[in-house]
Amino acid sequence: MNSESWPLELTEPLRGVVRIGTRASKLALWQAHWVRDQLRACWGPTLEVELVHITTE
């Protein structure tokens, strides 16, 4: 992403679900919730955001 493309401006509202992949640690969950809140602050509280917990073996 370069300076010419930020901030991102969309001509149409976002549709569907925004999924954020996150680990289950307290820090990772805090970060994912922060990103979710920032997205909702930009796009409105009706933006559907789903947190997807990712685990590895």
| End-to-end Cα distance | 32 Å
Give the integer mean of the pLDDT values: 84
Into which percent range does the helicity of residues fall?
25-40%
* Poorly predicted regions: none
Which keywords apply here?
2 strands, 32% helix, 57 residues, single chain, 1 helix
Describe what is shown at a glance.
The chain is an alpha+beta fold. The protein has one helix at residues 26-43; strands at residues 17-22, 48-53. The protein is elongated.
Give a description of the structure.
- The protein is α+β, with helices and mostly antiparallel strands.
- It has a domain at 15-53.
- It has one helix spanning 26-43, and strands at 17-22, 48-53.
- α1 (26-43) links the parallel β1 (17-22) and β2.
- The longest helix is centred in the middle third of the chain and has 18 residues, at 26-43.
- The model has no long low-confidence stretch (mean pLDDT 84).
